[in-house]
Amino acid sequence: MKVIIPQQVTDCISKIGNRTAQKNGYKIYAALTIMSKRQNKYGYFPVPSTYLEKVNKRYKRALNALEEASIIKPFTRIEQHPKLIFESVEKRYYNVSKGICMKYKFLIDITQGIIEDVDFNNKRKFRWYSIIEHSMNELGYVGKISRDTFGRRVHHPVIPIYKEDLKNKGFAMIDAKCSQPKLLLNIIKEQDIVDKNYEDAFEVDFYNYLVQKLNLNNRQQAKDLFMYFLNSSGYVPNYKIHILFPIVSKFIKRLKTKNYKDAASYLQREEAKIWIDDLLENIPTDFALPIHDCLIVRDIEVYNILAYCKIKYQNIDFEVSFL
Fold it and tell me: CA distances (Å), 31 to each of 26, 54, 186, 236, in order?
């Protein structure tokens, strides 16, 4: 990966231990530059610890060195002192339960420096990457396999063409019924948050429940409304969804405290942990292609893989369809 390395970064990393430690320091710096593409208007960008750990497990050493050299700065906020009533403290801000990770910003100009090649190809160490690569090669496809920084979704050349190119060729798809609504339900349950109406919606079909309760025209209108509910900056076509799901509405609003896009990013990252980092990483086959919240597999293997998915995630309603 080609990265612009400012002189301040070179000076900083040259003081980090031996050659291996310095090599890892450049990897962490490269990871930060990738995440900086998601910076907000104040220059801060999210840096999940899980992401840095996959780049290098000893990431804290490089992170601390870059911070001490005034190359990066963590996001902090003023909070009440835990013991002194009339005192306050400045603390780094993150909240795992809300899906809010640490944020940093660069204090230097990262567009000026020497362009260097940084060995950042860690994806090939993961089985999910090898499976996608093997599956594409078997089908005769070539192209880049990448992962975005917003929701950690995987992208590859087959995604936009699979419906036409793989039709009637012996493949099946495993996906999740009402994927994001159900994912949101599972998340709030894990946090002991209860919204009775939202839970009741899954006793039937979630989108049909919205159609009935909110007098919508059809399921597609219900799907569109939920996407507004989850992803918009505030506007929804039918405000009564906030009244129907008051607790979930407050939960989503909390996720959007800093940026309204944080809710979508959070759910996509949780989705990616399931479908890529777990199911695909450990799948009992050598052929599988992810399409965000589903997997394309050979039709002769689909029910064995379906059983595997159901054992791992009993709270997800997996479905099978044939291409």
Answer: 9, 10, 30, 35
pLDDT tens profile 232-273: 887 888 899 999 999 999 999 988 887 888 889 899 999 999
Cα(165)–Cα(291) distance, integer angstroms: 14
Q: How confident is the model at residue 42 (pLDDT cuts 50, 70, 90)?
A: confident
In what order do the strands lie in the sheet containing 171-176? Answer: 289-290, 294-298, 171-176, 318-322
pLDDT tens-digit readout, 127-178: 999 999 999 999 999 889 998 888 889 999 999 999 999 999 999 999 999 9
- Nearest CA among 307, 296, 51, 15 for reference residue 174: 296
Q: Report the distance separating Cα 57 and Cα 50, nearest Å.
A: 9
Q: What percent of the chain has pLDDT over 70?
A: 92
Q: Look at residues 167, 179, 210, 202 and name the one whose alpha carbon lies nearest to residue 322.
A: 167
Give the CA radius of gyration of the chain: 22
Locus of tokens 């890892």: 24
Residue type, 285: T
Which helix (H) or strand (E) segment is 219 a member of?
helix 219-231
Q: Which 3 state secondary structure label does DSSP give 46? A: strand
Q: Rounded to whole angstroms, how far apart are CA atoms 259 and 230?
A: 13
Find out whether 197 and 206 touch, Cβ atoms under 8 Å: no
Cβ distance 216 to 223 under 8 Å? no
DSSP character string of 100-148: B--EEEESS-TTSSEEEE----GGGGSHHHHHHHHHHHHHT-----EE-
